[in-house]
Amino acid sequence: MPSAISAHSLEKTYGSGEGEVRALRGVSLEVASGEVVALVGPSGSGKSTLLTSLGLLALPDTGTIRIGGELVVDAGVARGDLAAIRRSRLGFVFQRSNLVPFLTAVENVALALTINDVDARDAKDRAHALLASLGLGDRSSAYPEELSGGQAQRVAIARALAMDPPVLLADEPTAALDGPRSRDVMMLFRRIAHERGAAVVVVTHDHRVLDAFDGVHEMDDGILSERRSGAAHA
Amino acid sequence: MNLALKDVRRQLPRFVATAFGLGLLFAIVLAMGGIYRGMVDDAVLLVDRTGADLWLVQRDTRGPFAERSVVAGALEARAAAVPGVAWARAFTTVTIQRELEGKPFRATLVGLAWPEDRGGELPLVAGRALESVHRELVADTSLGLALGQRLPLGDDTYSVVGLTRGLVSASGDGLMFLSNADVLRVESYQPPEAVRLRRGAGLADDAAAPMIAAVAVRVAPGRDVAEVRARLAGWPDVSVSSTDEQRALLLSGVVDKSRRQIGLFRALLVVVSAIVVSLVIFNMTVAKTREIALLKLMGARLSVVVRLIVEQSLLLCGLAYGVAVAVAQLAFDKFPRRVAVEPVDYAAAFALVLAIGLVASAAGVRRALAIPPTAILAG
Predict the structure, then answer these.
(1) For the purposes of burial, counting CB atoms within 10 Å of the CB of B252, is it exposed (0-12), middle (13-18) or buried (19 or more)?
(2) Which residues in chain B have Cβ-Cβ distances shorter than 8 Å to A102?
(3) Is the pLDDT higher at B205 or at A193?
(4) Average pLDDT, chain B
(5) Is the peptide bond before A60 cis (omega within 30 degrees of 0)?
(6) CB–CB of A90 and B10 under 8 A?
């Protein structure tokens, strides 16, 4: 199966001298379309650095990143308009839903489309359909403050999926949710991966949901371990 | 989807309150311009109203408006006899401050050249022009006098027979129009004891040879103004100036310092307004740090972020401008001095407000552009 996203020999160092921290030490990772993988590890192990590198938010010092086979970072240097790539080919989900508080649920989802120049009415129709498919059809007019934590997280996932990106990156998406809701969200990721063929990379501390992943990578001190099956961690 | 409007809707009461405060500031900027324009209008009102081409004033003075001028009353007849002069009228004016019904009463008396000028061309809003050479006057409504009211001046009591609106002196005092003879009576009035003392000291009676401020001269149609002026300028006891020169004297002398003062004050207010808008927009931008970071993380073009900031700034300024216009319409008429705001002033103020909005949004835009997309991950 072709890699939806791949990283090769990523290196990232913060600071210098005695304060130097090597956040990524030759990290390589491949995630295929339709696959859901987890990045686990202690705080400060480099998980978030890897995720921000894969999300083209902070470039590695060296190494390459490909999305859908296209080279987007080469030797730590951007190839092309990274914002445009993020806009159309990457979806992000965070620990907090990070919904725009002055937009309704449907407007939050439509926002991801309108910034991609999708017509406003079309964007709203597609956002409505997406929310309905995630079981939030009756909450589309609600503002974030009117949604429960689980509902808000599902709206955030809908927003991340709006452009049907080939890669979905999630940073602790279940940290603020209780057990059943965490599992719901993970099952949703699996469904998205299988139905839409998206590659899903999730940074998590939540061992309750590791069995939902196709593979689990453990990070420690900037080094990414070999891949293991999710069930093995459960 | 307009993000700026949606964000404003979320914080509408605060936004409107801010716009209201800013609107009051803009209203003062607008008023400053209006006060200056009103001052200019008031200053040249008498010059323009007279309809003269030339002014004969005391030799080597710049009177009668910019400084005191005293000429003999006989000058009127001498000027009228000059070939090419259509008419020559004595111009008398005096400012008085008395007490009326226990309150200070300040007015500028202007003489009418009875019987040719009885005030028929005054913009009366009530009553009539003068019908008698004595003891009648036409007053401006700003003086607070009522039609038929009787006003003691000197040794006489005068009846208000007509009312005008918006006729004030360069100092902003309401005008009262009386016959020239009555103005001179009021000006030269001395109590009987003072007259007795003067006579006892062998001094001439003031009323014996009346003195006036100036003579206004109208050149006959078809006659060369320069030619008439040259002839009058040859008289050794007077100086001659044109109406345009009188206007220039007023604007460059009497009004100029006020103009500069108001101009500086206005410039300061514009700067203060720009700073206030900048701070408001900057704070609004800081409050949206997470939303802006999110937009950037999602890959939104910078223009989306810039539009969000600039549109809110313009919206704030636009709303404030609306408040300023409303204040101008409702309150400027109630100011003690004329505040003359013309449509061109409103248009200029609108352009200025938009410029302030654009300039002020720079700080917010700069702040927004500095927000990294990873700020959303900061927790």
Answers:
(1) exposed
(2) 3, 6-7, 9-10, 291
(3) A193
(4) 88
(5) no
(6) no
Residue type, A74: D
User: What is the nearest CA distance from B301 to chain A, expressed in angstroms?
Assistant: 7
Task: Give the mean pLDDT of B305-332.
Answer: 93
Out of B3, B291, B299, whose CB is closest to A83?
A: B299
Q: Minimal Cα–Cα distance from A30 to chain B, Å?
A: 22
B339-375 tens-digit pLDDT: 889 999 999 999 999 998 898 899 899 999 999 988 8
- Contact indicator for B54, B242 with CB cutoff of 8 Å: yes
Rounded to whole angstroms, the Cα distance separating B112 from B182 reads 9
A111 vs B: CB within 8 A: yes
Cross-chain CB nearest to A115 (options B300, B372, B377): B300
Q: Are A167 and A201 in contact (CB under 8 A)?
A: yes
For residue A44, the model assigns a pLDDT of 86
Q: What is the mean pLDDT of residues B160-169?
A: 90
Three-state DSSP at A92 gives strand
Task: Identify which of A57, A101, A171 has the shortest CB distance to residue B10.
Answer: A101
Give A 191-210 residues with CB within 8 A of chain B: none
**Parallel, antiparallel or unpaired: strands A167-171 and A199-203:** parallel
Instruction: Say which DSSP state A28 is in.
Output: E
For domain A3-233, the question of CATH label 3.40.50.300 is answered with yes
Chain B residues touching residue A90 (CB < 8 angstroms): 299
What whole-number distance in Å separates Cα of residue A198 and Cα of residue A32?
8
* pLDDT over 50 at A234, yes or no: no
Helix (H, G, I), strand (E, B) or coil at B163: strand
Distance, CA of B299 to CA of B373 (rounded, Å): 9
Chain-chain contact of B299 with A85 (C-beta, under 8 angstroms): yes
ipTM reported for the complex, 2 dp: 0.84
Residues of B whose CB is below 8 A from A176:
none
Structure letter (DSSP) for residue B298: T
Asked if the model's pLDDT at residue B172 lies above 90, the reply is: no
Q: What tens digit of pLDDT does each residue of A133-184 get?
A: 888 889 999 999 999 888 898 899 889 888 888 999 998 888 777 777 778 8
Question: Which residues of B touch chain A, with CB atoms under 8 Å apart?
Answer: 1, 3, 6-7, 9-10, 290-291, 294-301, 304, 372-374, 376-377, 379
Q: Show me where the domains of chain B are located.
A: 3-43+257-378, 48-254
Q: Which residue of A has its CA nearest to B296?
A: A83
